[in-house]
TrEMBL record:
Protein kinase domain ranges (all copies): 104-362
Enzyme class: transferase
Annotated segments matching region Disordered: 1-93
Family from the record: Belongs to the protein kinase superfamily. Ser/Thr protein kinase family. CDPK subfamily. Belongs to the protein kinase superfamily. CAMK Ser/Thr protein kinase family. CaMK subfamily.
Domain named EF-hand: residues: 403-438, 439-474, 475-510, 511-545
InterPro entries per record: CDPK_Ser/Thr_kinases (IPR050205), EF-hand-dom_pair (IPR011992), EF_Hand_1_Ca_BS (IPR018247), EF_hand_dom (IPR002048), Kinase-like_dom_sf (IPR011009), Prot_kinase_dom (IPR000719), Protein_kinase_ATP_BS (IPR017441), Ser/Thr_kinase_AS (IPR008271)
Protein name per the record: non-specific serine/threonine protein kinase
Organism of provenance: Forsythia ovata
Compositionally biased region (Low complexity): 35-44
Bias kind Pro residues: ranges: 54-76
UniProt superkingdom: Eukaryota
GO MF terms, alphabetically ordered: ATP binding; metal ion binding; protein serine/threonine kinase activity
EC number in record: 2.7.11.1
Length: 550
């Protein structure tokens, strides 16, 4: 993405916890200095009456010295005149609206999420460049959404200045948007850098793991639980070979409340800890997620795979970590020891961030010999494949007959209460509730993100069908052929690079590197294009099978 792009937020996952009171000077409250007006006079103590003597004859009293007339009250200085600025009704951050464009110029788009867009941003006065995440307030529908936005800003400001955490520069709000200004991370995503380098070793993986766990350590030390650690949330500060890794997304983070048991199911499928799925967890979940990232860094695939999200969750709860498949026999015992300690299912027995940072493999014992190149290949496949598959499934859903989508159309119509042709988050939440769903707001948000292919914040009819249709129907031959024809615009029998690029850009899904990787991974006969058999193999191959390819 090229900038510090905070991905989509989900709401309730950010249920607020302990606030350390360190609001800093972010302006969450008006910090006006109030001065108590000084008194105009000082009351004199009254003299006690003497009741046993007659009152003395009145004596002439000295006339009071002429006093200068009391001047008319001077209008107070501005700070006294308006101790509190009235806030607009739709104010989120709790400070007056301010036009960010008076100080910064918003440039090219760096990334897009469900709630907003991240832009390259230049400070007008200095020419310094930053990343600016602009969130449309109309997409922050519920009170929880707004609280989450405020908390994300608060947490970023609270953690700013720590190693391996993106530097927070400020937050602005106007009538339409909230703008979060942060350090520009120009080095790209973690996996992109590894793949681009083309060579890799355990020692390099150990250095990356150290930086990731350093983020966990700082968060926990400062009373924050991250709750959504994954490779996409780490960017490199610059294109320099030794650039520092930076955590950029705190949308699901919360302040830790001592003694509180957290129950919201949050995070991303591959990286979620077993205790999250059991709805009883604490900060130990961050170590599990970091352990999953380390497993991927060493092998190219996550430790728990399945065809569906439910299958992944079942594997996380029941299966043991695989250290038998390639390349694990050639990975050092010290590395395997650390991974197994980080992926211990019992959170009480799981290694802590301090213990990870003290582990011999992290402190220099990791060997420098190259890791098998197949690991890089799998990492590329894991990162790129889902985009093409998701787009192809959407194409297939568009061609399904009324019979094949029986019932789904009625469900969509019932959920789309304003008849706009698209389901908003609030409509999805209330529709699921009417169907008897017990999903938390966090889970509804995750459903929303998964179904919203084009990332515009709503689910259109075809996206809804794609998300709810049984996969076995979507992968039948006639449907696969229709999808293939969609990409094969010139009916040549092949999907060329240009055709793939055109189709993916139509949905805002494809950048140059991703398209190149998809071609190279799907094109098994290496002729630079994708034929029908290769396309079908890609669509039918589940993640479980992909994990066993190497």
């Amino acid at each position: 993405m090229g900038g510090c792009f905070s991905k989509n937020k989900y709401t309730t996952p950010d249920a607020n916890g302990y606030r350390s009171g360190r609001t800093g000077d972010t302006g969450y409250q008006s910090h006006q200095n109030y001065q108590k007006p000084s008194s105009q006079y000082t009351p004199q103590p009254s003299q006690p009456e003497r009741h046993h003597q007659p009152p003395p004859m009145p004596r002439p009293q000295p006339q009071p010295r002429p006093q200068a007339p009391i001047p008319a009250p001077v209008k107070p200085a501005p700070q006294h005149h308006s101790p509190v600025q009235r806030l607009e009704p739709n104010n989120i951050l709790g400070k007056p609206f301010e036009d960010i464009r008076s100080k910064y110029k918003l440039g090219k788009e760096l990334g897009k999420g469900q709630f907003g867009v991240t832009y390259l941003c230049t400070e007008i006065a200095t020419g310094h460049t930053y990343a600016c995440k602009s969130i449309l307030k109309r997409k922050l529908v519920s009170k929880n959404d707004k609280d989450d936005m405020k908390r994300e800003v608060h947490i970023m400001q609270h953690l700013s200045g720590q190693l391996n955490i993106v530097e927070f520069k400020g937050a602005y709000e106007d009538r339409q948007s909230v703008h979060v200004l942060m350090e520009l991370c120009a080095g790209g995503e973690l996996f992109d850098r590894i793949i681009a380098q083309g060579h890799y070793s355990e020692r390099a993986a150990a250095d990356l793991c150290r930086q990731i766990v350093n983020v966990v350590h700082h968060c926990h030390f400062m009373g924050v639980m991250h709750r959504d650690l994954k490779p996409e949330n780490f960017l490199l500060a610059s294109k320099d070979e030794k650039a520092m890794l930076k955590a950029t997304d705190f949308g699901l983070s919360v302040f830790i409340e001592e003694g509180k048991v957290y129950r919201d199911v949050v995070g991303s499928a591959y990286y979620v800890a077993p205790e999250v799925l059991r709805r009883s967890y604490g900060k130990e979940i961050d170590i599990w997620s970091a352990g999953v990232i380390l497993y991927i860094l060493l092998s190219g695939v996550p430790p728990f795979w399945a065809e569906t999200e439910k299958g992944i969750f079942d594997a996380i709860l029941k299966e043991e970590v695989d250290f038998e498949s390639q390349p694990w026999p050639s990975i050092s015992n010290s590395a395997k020891d650390l991974v197994s300690r980080m992926l211990t299912k019992d959170p009480k027995k799981r290694i802590t961030s301090v213990q990870v940072l003290e582990h011999p493999w992290i402190k220099g014992q990791a060997p420098d010999k190259p890791i098998d190149s197949a690991v890089l290949s799998r990492m590329k496949q894991f990162r790129a494949m889902n985009k093409l598959k998701k787009l192809a499934l959407k194409v297939i859903a568009q061609s399904l007959s009324e019979e094949e989508i029986k019932g789904l159309k009625a469900t969509f119509t019932n959920m789309d209460t304003d008849k706009s042709g698209a389901i908003t988050y609030e409509e999805l939440k209330s529709g699921l509730a009417r169907l008897g769903s017990k999903l938390s707001e966090a889970e509804v948000k995750q459903l929303m993100e998964a179904a919203d292919v084009d990332g515009n914040g709503t689910i259109d009819y075809i996206e809804f069908i794609t998300a709810t249709m049984h996969r076995h129907k979507l992968e039948r031959d006639e449907h696969l052929y229709k999808a293939f024809q969609y990409f094969d615009k010139d009916n040549s029998g092949y999907i060329t690079r240009d055709e793939l690029e055109s189709a993916m850009k139509e949905y805002g899904m494809g950048d140059e590197a991703t398209i190149k990787e998809i071609i190279s991974e799907v094109d098994t006969d290496n002729d630079g294009r994708i034929n029908y058999d290769e396309f079908c193999e890609m669509m039918r191959s589940g993640t479980t099978q992909q994990a066993k390819l190497f």
